[in-house]
Amino acid sequence: MGALKPATLALAALGVFAIGRRQTPGQSDGMVLGLVLLAMISLVQAVFYVDARHRLAVEPLLMLFSGQGVAVLLPRRMARERGLPGSANA
Description:
Layout: H1 4-21, H2 27-48, H3 59-82
Helix pairs in contact: 1-3
């Protein structure tokens, strides 16, 4: 389970980046709300709780952003495997 955390954080960062690049109004508002919620939960737990098991409150929010990261990477991977135009191999 040691490799799961870095992968989740990397996919979450990619998801936040992908949402931030969108030009659709309102979608970045949800991202900002999620990031503020993540920051507030982390801050409160860092101040009042020192135990690592309290990170469980943050994990579901990280998974939402990680899902967006997977949604960005999956179509690119599939296009590369099929050799479609616009992929790295074409």
